[in-house]
Amino acid sequence: MPRLMKHIFPLNRHLIQRLGFAGLTVMAFLTVLPIVAVVIYIIVQGAPAISLEFLSDFPRGGMREGGILPAIIGTIYLTIGTAVFSVPLGIAAAIYLSEYAADTPLTRTIRIAIINLAGIPSVVYGLFGLGLFVLFLRFGTSILAASLTLSIMTLPVIISTAEEALRSVPQAFRTVSISLGATRWQTIRRIVLKEALPGIITGVILGLERAAGETAPILFTGAAFFLPRLPHSPFDATMALPYHLFVISTQVPEMPIKIQYGTALVLLVFVLAMNVTATFIRSRARAKRQW
Amino acid sequence: MNKILIESLSLQYSDGTESLRNVSMEIPANAITVLFGPAGGGKSTLLRCLNRLNDLADVQVVEGKVLIDGENILAPQTDVIALRRKVGMVFARPVVLPMSIRANLTYGLELAGEKRRSKLDEAVERSLRLAALWDEVKDRLDDPAIALSGGQQQRLCLARSLALQPEIILLDEPTSGLDPISTGKVEAALQELKKDYTIVLVPHSVQQAARTADYAAFFLQGELIEYGEGSVIFTAPKEKRTEDYITGRFG
Fold first, then answer.
1. What ipTM does this complex have?
2. Domain that holds residue B167
3. Are the C-beta atoms of residues B26 and B51 closer than 8 Å to each other?
4. Among residues A42, A157, A244, B112, which one has the fewest Cβ atoms lying within 10 Å of its Cβ?
5. Among A175, A182, A290, beta carbon nearest to B98
6. What is the value of pTM for the model shown?
7. B251, part of any domain
8. Which residues contact A1 (CB under 8 A, 6 or more apart)?
């Protein structure tokens, strides 16, 4: 067959290569296209809604007017709450796996568990959070319960990226440090963590970014349909951007479309800002890296 | 005066393969003792036994003792941190820590609890002078160490060990990546250092072994074949295998 083709299309190898690369380039651009389209569409539809009032006021008129302040504040609270639990735990687990754990059946099981944790649908986390934190531990529908649920969902991302970052620190640094009379912990604290920090921060931000944008895990655990005031304590429920978007898109009839897209735009900017920060930290650390 | 006494030491890797077989030797103070031989002979493993760096690798002591100043450092109750301060090490590849020249030198001392600025500065200058690097870097101590050339980095690594004021210095092919001029500087520094230190060197070539050795030990496949004064080993070896290796018939 190839021989036959050659007879029909007498192409030389260079031309074939050029065609091949051209095809690959088109494919690469095609993958970017949907993302760009989504962002542009949301900006065009949502930008008219954005105003100081929209960002700083409570929803009014059955949420068809006013702003989305409590949802913005709520998402910030949930993100911080998630960070409080998942960051120390995730980094500690990554240090254990990368620096201390031997390759035993137990640690292999832990690793497999972490990988599988990342594959669990977010609504399942939501249900789990409802059962454990809201009902069993009696935290109620609260920022605390929602943050804990989001933390469990975020942990695999933080652990695996942090472990990756720790492993990329050259082994020779550890050997040298030990040979200079450092303990393993001193070596980790003074050399390994310092070098891995940009990578760890990047992973943390990417994990939190996902938490900030999720609806399902907070659906049963901490998100409120509407609250006339901001939450006072971790035991209060809260409004949040993703859930608010879900509510105003599906639960409220005759919703002005620009408020929906305005909310989507705010959420998008929130998440993209975190993403850009992560990318910035990573690229700056790479440029500064000396090995 | 023997600083290090190795008594019928046998080591093996965790998969059971033998690394060193029944090695006994005495390493004198204030001299350069060279461990040489073809790759895989167990020289590096023996070297890393002397500061217990093998603890990090999958090497086990089967039997034997290593006495430093009369104390068996292989005993489980040994304070390995104190041991590693007393027994400094320089590796084949110069590995500077990702920090300034000064911080590389003060790293070990700070870990040991030294906080006084004057003491640290003193150690920086003293160790850099000993490693013949002071004049080249004295005006840029706060530059990143990685900016130094390969030869300078290796002398920095030597200085970094010396900053801890060890008694013994282990060098594992310290000049394997260096040009002849840098190699000469390192070797000259070692000749100065041996007045005050016990030096154990795994050279990267037979020529370097012959140039530097006060005492030389020939290792072949985990066995100590011959050990004696360098001037004797490299001119009139007793063992046929030593002679064959030195004259380049194998290796």
1. 0.89
2. 2-246
3. no
4. B112
5. A290
6. 0.83
7. no
8. none
